[in-house]
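pinging the channel bc i need a second pair of eyes. not urgent but kinda urgent?? the chain im working w is below, pasted from the shared doc
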Amino acid sequence: MNQVRELVFYRQHFHEFFDKQSEKAKEKIDYILFLLTHIDKVPEKFLKHIEGQKGLYEIRVEHGNNIFRIFCCFDKGKIVILFNGYQKKSNKTSSQEIELANKLMKEYFSTTK
């Protein structure tokens, strides 16, 4: 299977989140990231634009009763930038996490241009 996107991890936020997860949760996250890099049209079940947020997406991972969200955006059409992630505990996406992701996205684009 050919790779269609490259993953870029901006700073340490994603790795700090990932390192705290169980081995099984890490395997599921890795699987979703593999799909993201190898499937041209990723189903909304795994990648969804966040309403009201310009250019911000969430990678959606479910493992058992756990729901994880990892924020990202695209750069130059193909590169996925992974920002912060968290375990979702309610139906609503955490506004605090969205604020952090937006801040990181602005920071990323201001340092790469």
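so The mean pLDDT is 93. and The longest strand covers residues 66-75. — does that match what u expected or am i reading it wrong
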